[in-house]
Batch of 3 targets.
Target 1
Amino acid sequence: MPPAPLPTIVSIGDRVGPGIYTLHSRFRRAANYIRASRIVTTAAVEVGAGPANILIEPYPDKPPLSLRISPGRVEAGGKTIRFPTARRYSSRPEFSRPDRAGLDRRLAVLRGEILELAPPLSLAFLLDRRREIGLRGGFQKLFAARINNGAELLLAGEIDKGVAALRGRGFGLTPSGDDFLAGVLIGLHLRQAIRRRDCSRCRDRIFGRARRGSPMTDHFLALAHDLRLPARLKDLAEAIAGGTESATAERAADWLRSGAGSPADLATGLYATLKEGERLCS
């Protein structure tokens, strides 16, 4: 039997910093590691590049309990994997030619993709209230009411009340309300690029109120605040800012199919901010 191929780092994100990280959570094709407030993720190639992702091929069946990351190499499970600087993934999108004139058409495309591809319990009901009919039981209906209230308050400029109603709401490694807030932060970056208005103070305030001491949530909110995006979301952001409608549809579908509920919840916050966020960043 030939020896197993040595693992190779295909891509390493530009927000992966040196240090010793311990296993936080694991899934079939990815694992999260934590060091203080920093998170890095080892993942299979199909997961896609990201600011804190280390893509490994072949991906191990059992992730190691810790990682030691230093310049040019990653030590894991008794093995050292070296990587050149050329394999660094650049996570910040480029908005070199923002197109304000076609924004409404691209947003209509994004909305259509969200409503078609979002799972039943996602926050897509914020874009079409008919989706609330599928929510069952008092808990789900109460959850929808709180999310509706929080989104309305936030988009009306009531930042403190809106964030308080949204943060931590929902289930999963990153709850739905937090994913929505990450989308809002990214949406404010896009509003600034397209409409040429400084939204930094609003972003800072939302980020400050949204953090709640959960390492994974605070990590993803920090990436959104700093506009450091995984590859599929980076492509979508660039298409919304200045691409074609067909490119927006393709990139939106790629992003929405990249996970369970989180991509749809984030995309809903992104859409709502661009479509209705005038009072957030005027």
Target 2
Amino acid sequence: MKSLITLLTAVLLIGTAFAADDVASAIHGTVEKIDNTSKTVAVKTADGSVHTLHLAKSTTVHGAKATADATAAAGKASWHGIDTGSEVIVHYTKTGTEKSAVEIDRIGKGGFDVTKGTVESISRGGKSIAVKTSDGTIKTFHLTDRAAKYVGTETGKGAEKGSQVTVYSTETAGKKMAHFFEKI
């Protein structure tokens, strides 16, 4: 019985250690390089850092038109409709030093809309953010589950009433959906 308890405790501790390493985060930048052989993408952020992330078949791509023919024709500079030079937000997990892309969101033409303004209100529980734009218009966005999760975390850190933010959104069935936002 004692050895069973010891074994279960060890399994629990090992599982907790691995779960602690698997951290979700996001980066915003420009695709510098796509390597289809090693299945990686290099993204350069505004501060000049380059992040190399592993791609998987399960990596979701939003805001890019991807077809097998288009991807094949684009060659090494493209992956599922994301090209070198694309402005993107990459949601990823990190285990140890390895970053794995979970979702890639294309920004701009054909991708997510960009709204800059001041936070009027934000509600994680209510899954909404209201932003006052420079022309005085207040735009209310519904937060996706992922965006709501980021409120108050490293990615959404400092995004509170009165903060300047950029909201990346789409419109679905007449609703503005905020997929990601960041303090500027």
Target 3
Amino acid sequence: MTQTPNTPPPVKPKSKLKKFAGITLLILVLAAVAYYFVCGMTYSDGTRSGVLTKVSRKGYFFKTYEGEINIGGINQGEGTIIPLTIFKFSTNKKQIYDSLEVYQGRKVVLKYRQVIKNFVWQGETDYFVDHVSLVK
């Protein structure tokens, strides 16, 4: 078949493999973006207070700052006691971690935010402390 100067060259149809690879790549990119937003989205926020019982820096590859406060149990009378509650949290701020080390064993108030799901390098828990203050 000869082409005249005014006719465009014939368009080759995309191979099925290229089309499948393109669609798969698009789906993976959209899934990664959605997962990123889910991990960064704040589900809830608030404060908790209790005695700071543990602060540590842990992890094999990604070092994170972890901690626990003892919120305490409640005596409801007539011998009924709700057992003590431990609140586990993470923080990614070195300044917060340094404050927590100083407040070890004392009563603190933690301002936190909860995410739906965390990335491995963010911490072990879904609760991230943004501010800590000492109860006087």
